[in-house]
Design a protein that fits this description.
By secondary structure, the protein is of the alpha/beta class. It is built from 16 helices and 14 strands.
């Protein structure tokens, strides 16, 4: 029965032909993202970066294993695990039934006994089926056992909006999981982020939520010689300044980093120098880098795909108000997804997620280059 389902169903429970069409429809917009990285002339897709990180960590540590739906014979719904079953065998690359609650619980139990599971969700929306194991079993066990039980497990998969997959498959879980003590929450943007952060997550002694983005899998980014080394690792909890500026700080994570860089390029042509911070880690959050930037630019725009209420941007705003309020020369601007379930219609879907022009307008308001929204209401 599972084999029949695999033939008929694509990623997230949608037919593969429909999903492929949706990705093709949105791909041109993503490929316009600016590139600002140290480079050896070599490029790597985010998909290959994740695959190589898994491969190297599984090779280095026999306790690391991968489990999830279609990760083995099908080589992953997004081909992240391509070649791993052939190399490491079915004992370390485990195809599971369509039961997130079941295989997530097995993964947490394996971590209790010292193994290092990497649990793949075909989409993080499906992690809601397993949220009790993630929150109550994985996140809290180290504290409740007075440090006697470590839970070195990674939960990874695509997060946030894709294209035309509706309200139940488009949610961003960054703020959901970042609110829980005991978890670490990582959100890579580039290939170096994906490769270095996944390695760090697998080596970490605590449970890590690793939020990828479906629309970035096929994107190529330049990678440095350092990033190609098997020992490469990106420190958890450290943000990256993707572009330096002096007039306004823009914080973003995952796909929104690319949008923020596009907005910064547009703003530069109008005399506004924007500093773009790639958060990379949502919990722990690099408050020092954010506040240092705001104290330099005196203005802040936060960008995220998730819902605005109780979001990542709200937490950043609170941190800046608490630590750097006296440095602010303008109200903080928050750009987030619309406070509604994700529409299915393509035109409404675009209106429900932040766009480059939204970031540009917010930065102009912060710099008093535009009429405030309240004045036009």
């Amino acid at each position: 029965m599972l084999g029949i389902l695999r033939q008929k169903v694509g990623c997230g429970g949608f037919p593969a032909s429909i999903l492929g069409h949706s990705l093709q429809r949105i791909q041109p917009a993503v490929s316009m993202l600016p590139r600002r990285f140290s480079s050896t002339g070599k490029e790597m897709t985010v998909r290959d970066a994740l695959n190589s990180a898994l491969d190297e960590e599984m090779s280095a540590n026999p306790k690391v294993f991968l489990m999830g739906e279609e990760v083995g014979e099908y080589q992953g719904a997004y081909k992240i695990s391509k070649g791993l079953l052939e190399k490491y065998g079915p004992e370390r690359v485990l195809d599971t039934p369509i039961t997130e609650a079941g295989f997530t619980g097995i993964g947490v139990g394996a971590a209790y006994y010292g193994l290092r599971p990497v649990v793949e969700f075909m989409t993080f929306n499906f992690s809601m089926q397993a949220i009790d194991h993630i929150i109550n079993s994985a996140a809290k066990s180290n504290y409740m056992s007075s440090g006697q039980i470590s839970v070195p497990i990674v939960f990874r998969g695509p997060n946030g909006a894709a294209a035309g997959v509706g309200a139940q498959h488009s949610q961003c879980y960054a703020a959901w999981y970042a609110s829980c003590p005991g978890l670490k929450v990582l959100t890579p943007y580039s290939s170096e982020d994906a490769r270095g952060l996944l390695k760090a997550a697998i080596r970490d002694p605590d449970p890590v939520i690793f939020l990828e983005n479906e629309l970035l899998y096929g994107e190529s980014f330049p990678v440095s010689a350092e990033a190609l080394d098997s020992s490469f690792c990106v420190p958890i909890g450290k943000a990256k300044i993707e572009r330096e500026g002096k007039h306004v700080t823009i914080t973003a994570f995952s796909k929104m980093v690319g949008y923020a860089l596009q907005a910064a390029e547009i703003l530069s042509k109008e005399g506004i120098s924007a500093e773009v911070i790639n958060l990379r880690s949502i919990r722990p959050l690099d408050r020092n880098t954010i506040n240092a930037s705001v104290r330099k630019t005196n203005r802040l725009v936060t960008v995220e795909e998730g819902f605005p209420q109780h979001g990542v941007g709200a937490e950043i705003c609170a941190s800046v108000v608490e630590e750097s309020f006296g440095y602010l020369d303008a109200p903080v601007e928050r750009i987030a997804g619309a406070d509604v379930p994700m529409p299915y219609a393509a035109n409404l879907e675009r209106m429900a997620v932040p766009q480059v022009e939204d970031i540009v307008r917010a930065a102009k308001r912060a710099c008093y280059r535009a009429v405030p929204m309240a004045a036009t209401a």
